[in-house]
Design goal:
- It is a single chain.
- The protein is α+β, with helices and mostly antiparallel strands.
- It has two domains: 215 residues, Enolpyruvate transferase domain (UDP-n-acetylglucosamine1-carboxyvinyl-transferase, Chain, Alpha-beta prism); 206 residues, Enolpyruvate transferase domain (UDP-n-acetylglucosamine1-carboxyvinyl-transferase, Chain), CATH 3.65.10.10.
- Helix content is 32%, strand content 27%.
- It has 15 helices and 23 strands.
- The strands form six sheets. The protein has a four-stranded mixed β-sheet. A four-stranded mixed β-sheet has the order 2-14-16-15, covered by helices on one side.
- Helix 10 links the parallel strand 17 and strand 18.
- Helix 1 runs parallel beside helix 7.
- The longest helix is centred in the middle third of the chain and has 14 residues.
- The radius of gyration is 22 Å and the shape is globular.
- The chain binds ligand EPZ.
- The site of ligand EPZ has 23 residues, from helix 1, helix 5, helix 6 and helix 12.
Length: 427
């Protein structure tokens, strides 16, 4: 098994370019299923979630090539409409293929994606939305069969702006008969990018980025080539690292206009921020101010995907901060690992109370989810001494090169393979 070894305490200086956005590229890959031709997606990050999605789509019969961060997907012929069950549990977001499969085949089989370490992550809103369009579901254990003669456009009200549910409904509605109005839709930038791609493919979607999206069904979609924007969460992660360590870095290819709440929090912590359209510079003297209260919210609120990283950075402030996690019910696991480094964090329901005095010591810690793992990297970089982060495959699900990116900013961070007998035996 691989692990990350960090010798912390160094300030960060230099320039780093962020990868393409994981949470934009995955639904865009699903959209390629709706085109019985070739779809090209550029700036695709080399991350485990993309590799796993490639395997799933190849299992459906797509012919896929991936070189130099360019993904070419030929979905002319599919040889099955059943998602491979082994992937459902491994990769939650395989469920966003359901809407596209239904839109393509009118008959699809998927599997309950199961929960993960940040919550139960149900899919009831996905199911209810698709039912409104005429889809009939049967459930056999974990297997979900979805069938429809004709997808009919309709009005769908989402009680919560679920990103995945909005994506699944969009992918089913784009070629439905008639118009679909999604009220209470997610407003995330990833929804905007998906709709831009679907419109480039010949779709007719209006209102992306607002809470009301209109989808005028079209008969066919055609080939297209799209470039994924920079990953706002990866960019925020690197900025949080610079805030905690101190120093001055420039993050390029960052979608700054989609990062306002993360940048505002960094300024509240005492960092100097200078942003242009696609790059942001941060200066931190390492003496961070606490944040009396902040809560995660659906976009454009403070992103839940930056919550763990903020918690880690706030451990290097001086005073009490409170973070409320309103999106996922179990997204404070990182606190347990940060405590091994000397952090003083109390979890009270949906709130984390961080009592910080700027010092953490390196320790052996374990990543148990993607953003929690990235938070441990931040803590290891700013702590004094050596930190080893095991189970770092979680981190590489969403960060293509977090080790080498941060190395080039002057940090001592190396990805290593544990050669002990136990691990060689794959125990
Ligand atoms: C997407 O997950 C992202 N993943 C998540 O990023 C992100 O945290 C989340 O949106 C919120 O922004 C991808 O895009 C691949 P939701 P998703 O549906 O679609 C509840 C990362 O670190 N809910 O908006 O699963 C759900 O339990 C990942 O990159 C229902 O109750 O998020 C949760 O509490 C983590 N029923 C809340 O809504 C449903 O049918 C948000 O879920 C669906 C969701």
């Amino acid at each position: 098994m691989s692990f990350l070894e960090i010798n912390g305490g160094r300030k960060l200086y230099g320039t780093v370019s962020v990868q393409g956005a994981k949470n934009a590229v995955l639904p865009m890959m699903a959209a390629a299923l709706l085109n019985q031709g070739v779809t090209v997606i550029q700036n695709v990050p080399n991350i485990l979630d993309v590799i796993h999605m490639i395997h799933i789509m190849e299992g459906l019969g797509c012919k896929i090539s991936y070189e130099n961060e360019i993904l070419t997907l030929d979905a002319s012929c599919l040889n099955t409409n059943e998602l491979p069950s082994i992937w459902a549990g491994k990769m939650r977001c395989s469920i966003i293929l359901l809407g596209a499969l239904i839109g393509r085949c009118k008959d699809a089989v998927a599997y309950y994606p199961g929960g993960c370490s940040i919550g139960t992550r149900p899919i009831d809103l996905h199911i209810e939305g698709l039912k409104k369009m005429g889809v009939a579901f049967t459930f056999e254990g974990e297997k979900i069969r979805a069938k429809v003669d004709k997808l009919i456009g309709t009005e769908i009200l989402l009680p919560f702006p679920s990103v995945g549910a909005t994506e699944n409904i969009l992918l089913a509605a784009v070629k439905a008969h008639g118009t679909t109005c999604i009220r209470g839709a997610a407003r995330e930038p990833e929804i905007v990018e998906l709709c831009q791609m679907l419109n480039t493919m010949g779709g007719h979607i209006e209102g992306a980025g607002s809470d009301t999206i209109l989808v005028y069904g079209v008969a066919e979609l055609h080939d297209c080539s799209m470039k994924v924007s920079g990953d706002r969460i990866v960019a925020a992660t690197y900025l949080m690292a610079a805030a905690a360590c101190g120093g001055e870095i420039m993050v390029t290819e960052a979608p700054c206009n989609y990062m306002n709440t993360s940048l505002a929090v960094l300024e509240q912590m005492g960092c100097k921020i200078r942003k242009e359209e696609r790059q942001v510079e941060i200066h931190s003297d390492g003496n961070l101010c606490p944040v009396p209260y902040i809560r995660t919210e659906p976009y454009p609120g403070f992103p839940t995907d930056v919550q763990s990283q903020l918690m880690a950075a706030l451990c290097f402030s001086k005073g009490r901060s409170v973070i409320e996690e309103t999106i996922f019910e179990d997204r404070f696991h990182t606190a347990l690992e940060l405590k091994k480094m000397g952090a003083d964090i109390i979890i009270e329901g949906r709130r984390a109370l961080i009592y910080a005095d700027q010092r953490l010591c390196g320790a052996d810690v374990e990543a148990n989810d993607l953003r929690g793992g990235a938070a441990l990297v931040i803590a290891g970089l700013a702590a004094t001494g050596r930190t080893r982060i095991t189970s770092c495959q979680h981190i590489f699900r969403g960060y293509a090169r977090i080790d080498t990116d941060i190395q080039q900013l002057g940090a001592n961070i190396v990805k290593k393979v544990d050669e002990t007998e136990e691990n060689r035996a794959g125990i």
